[in-house]
Amino acid sequence: MSDLPIRCATLSDIGTVLQFWREAAEGTSITDDHDGVARLITRDPGALLLAERDGLVVGTVIAGFDGWRCSAYRLAVHPDHRRQGVATALLEAAEQRFAELGGRRVDAMVLEANERAHHVWAAAGYHREDHWRRWVKRL
Q1: Which residue positions in the chain have pLDDT lower than 50?
Q2: Which one of 34, 60, 110, 131 has the fewest CB atoms closer than 10 angstroms to its CB?
Q3: Residues 6 or more apart in contact with residue 50 via CB below 8 angstroms
Q4: Which domains does the chain show, CATH number per domain?
């Protein structure tokens, strides 16, 4: 495990997280707003993990568990802090959380066009399952 400080986000972090995602995350989501992040933190206070250096957020991952599946979303590292072990530390923290909750497998949402991310996930021991497709519907 890394010595990089990783903590759970609180409601007071929402503005910082949204700004961080605008700078560091690939793509956007319909829930990338104050209310969406507030619902996440309120429903599952341990899900949104933040990596920090010198008091600044340098990485995030959402480690969601619904009692059946472990899902990883929004793994993002600030461009100035990439290739320094931040993603690895965040994934280790997420996997530890999942194990403590009784999870047995992690599904990760990774943009098809984000080839840099493919390398990160593969290096962490994840593999692509081509026989699945994601189906979505906006509510």
Answers
A1: 1
A2: 131
A3: 6, 7, 8, 9, 13, 17, 57, 59, 60
A4: 6-123 (3.40.630.30)
